[in-house]
């Protein structure tokens, strides 16, 4: 195989996403600054000021307005983008549901961060996962390279006429947004070919339509049923788009889930986001010590890749799900989903809640949990305080 | 030509009369006294149901099939040329 010499850059996560946005050529953007996303907005502003990106960046007074303005632009046929985090995502929430229900193609990058109160600027997944029922596709990056790749893929998936759903790309606040990594980027022309200009346009002055209509009880449920169907169709489209990207970039993309040494594993971790990298280190160390450990990384949370998860996990001796978010009064959000997926199989699922509000989690923490599991000393739910 | 809206995307197609003859809802009927009317068109602009058209001579004409009789036109008319006449006993 011919080894491609790729353009390589050293970028922090926010700048990598901004670079991907520049190459994806959105025409309208509206972003309100919030830590830890702000430096992405600053970089995008620089690209527009230097005319490297020819787009309208609307200055808005809130996240709610940010999404409202790109919502209109997207319906008029523009490719649109926004980004936010934490409280900003919550403030945007009403419009998030509007965009999902209206099936507006758009991409939002979410630099994940804890939610007040207590006030925190550090990383966890509570903001991101609170939007799981808003009819948005949700993907989560493990590292800066994935954040770059997923941003470009997100536009393609969102605008695919079999899907037509907004896409949220989550990447861990600070851990990815402010960490510099070596990444390989595509050439501008390659992105142009992968991402042709948007075809679909709802606005036609010769045939007016009303957007945001009321639906009677007879019709409302039918729209929600169609949204459910679109989410199911999205699974195939996401795999297809990522496979095509893999061919262009020459880098493995893994689709909906990534299986790291889990084919012959007996015990497997399930993670999402940046700490999957730490978990891989833990898996390697455990393998060196003779423990048959593995990792299943969830790359796409909505639609939830049930079939893949079932395929990989149904014969495991133990599954440890790591959550950076919690549904209070219920359980770890990812853990609950995994338990539901494995219903009917005799697979013990353990839930570990850690890293909330940015608390540091290291490979040794993962190792300790699996050692406790093997020694029959792990509770069904454990908080790493 | 109808534009192709992808399946499942909720949009409305407002059409005249899609809710039936809404003029039947009327209690009071606005009647224009064309001797007083100055052709200022405020009634045309203010009508919330868009049921007042301009004739070729630029006088307003109310479409009673869809006028719900809200009375906004009578309120905004500067020379008070519109009377609200009770239709329902």
Structure description:
- The complex is a heterodimer of chains A (385) and B (89).
- With 385 residues, chain A is an alpha/beta fold.
- Chain A has two domains: 7-249, Thiamin diphosphate (ThDP)-binding fold, Pyr/PP domains (Rossmann fold, 3-Layer(aba) Sandwich); 257-383, Rossmann fold (3-Layer(aba) Sandwich), CATH 3.40.50.
- Chain A is 41% helix and 20% strand.
- Chain A contains 13 helices and 18 strands.
- A seven-stranded mixed sheet of chain A has the order 3-2-4-5-7-6-13, sandwiched between helices. In chain A, strands 10-12-11-14-17-18 form a six-stranded mixed sheet, with helices on both faces.
- In chain A, helix 10 links the parallel strand 11 and strand 12 (293-298).
- In chain A, helix 1 (13-24) packs parallel to helix 7 and helix 7 (144-159) crosses helix 9 (217-249).
- The longest helix of chain A is centred in the middle third of the chain and has 33 residues, at 217-249.
- The termini of chain A are far apart.
- The model of chain A has no long low-confidence stretch (mean pLDDT 95).
- Chain B is an alpha+beta fold and 89 residues long.
- Chain B has a domain at 32-86: 2-Layer Sandwich (Alpha-Beta Plaits), CATH 3.30.70.20.
- Chain B has helices at 42-46, 72-76, and strands spanning 11-12, 28-32, 52-54, 60-62, 82-86.
- In chain B, strands 2-5 form a two-stranded antiparallel sheet.
- The chains are: A alpha/beta (385), B alpha+beta (89).
- Chain A binds chain B through residues 101-103, 161, 164, 200-202, 204, 206-211, 213-215, 223, 226-227, 229-230, and chain B through 1-3, 5-14.
């Amino acid at each position: 195989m011919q080894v491609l010499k790729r353009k390589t850059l050293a970028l922090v996560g926010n700048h990598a996403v901004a670079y991907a946005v520049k190459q994806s050529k959105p025409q309208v953007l509206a972003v309100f600054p919030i830590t830890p996303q702000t430096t992405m907005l600053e970089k995008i502003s620089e690209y527009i000021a230097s005319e490297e990106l020819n787009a309208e960046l609307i200055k808005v007074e809130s996240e709610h307005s940010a999404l409202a303005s790109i919502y209109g632009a997207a319906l008029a046929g523009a490719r649109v983008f926004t980004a936010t985090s934490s409280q900003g995502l919550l403030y945007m929430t009403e419009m998030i549901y509007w965009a999902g229900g209206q099936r507006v193609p758009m991409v939002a990058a979410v630099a994940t961060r804890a939610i007040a109160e207590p006030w925190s600027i550090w990383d966890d997944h509570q903001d991101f996962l609170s939007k799981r029922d808003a009819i948005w596709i949700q993907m989560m990056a493990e590292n800066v390279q994935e954040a770059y790749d997923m941003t470009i893929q997100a536009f393609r998936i969102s605008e695919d006429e079999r899907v037509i759903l907004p896409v949220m790309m989550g990447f861990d606040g600070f851990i990815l947004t402010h960490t510099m990594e070596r990444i390989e980027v595509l050439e501008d022309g390659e992105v142009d070919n992968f991402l042709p200009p948007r075809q679909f346009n709802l606005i036609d002055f010769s045939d007016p339509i009303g957007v945001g209509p009321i639906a009677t009880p007879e019709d409302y449920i039918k729209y929600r049923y169609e949204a459910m169907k679109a989410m199911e169709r999205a699974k195939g489209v996401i795999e297809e788009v990522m496979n095509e990207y893999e061919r262009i970039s020459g880098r493995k993309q893994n689709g909906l889930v990534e299986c790291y040494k889990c084919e012959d594993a007996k015990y497997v971790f399930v993670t999402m986001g940046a700490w999957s990298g730490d978990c891989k280190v833990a898996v390697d160390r455990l393998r060196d010590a003779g423990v048959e450990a593995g990792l299943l990384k969830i790359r796409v949370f909505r639609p939830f890749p049930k079939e893949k998860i079932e395929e990989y996990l149904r014969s495991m001796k133990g599954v440890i799900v790591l959550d950076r978010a919690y549904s209070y009064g219920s359980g770890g959000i990812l853990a609950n989903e995994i338990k539901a997926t494995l219903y009917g199989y005799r697979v013990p699922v353990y839930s570990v809640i850690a890293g909330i509000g940015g608390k540091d989690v290291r490979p040794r923490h993962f190792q300790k949990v699996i050692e406790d599991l093997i020694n029959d000393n792990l509770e069904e739910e454990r908080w790493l305080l | 030509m109808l534009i192709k809206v992808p399946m499942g995307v909720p949009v409305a197609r407002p059409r005249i009369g899609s809710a039936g003859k809404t003029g039947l809802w009327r209690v009071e009927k606005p009647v224009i006294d064309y001797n007083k009317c100055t052709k200022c068109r405020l009634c045309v602009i203010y009508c919330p149901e868009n049921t007042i058209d301009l004739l070729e001579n630029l006088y307003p004409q109310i479409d009673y099939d869809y006028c719900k009789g809200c009375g906004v036109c009578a309120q905004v008319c500067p020379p008070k040329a519109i009377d609200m006449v009770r239709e329902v006993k």
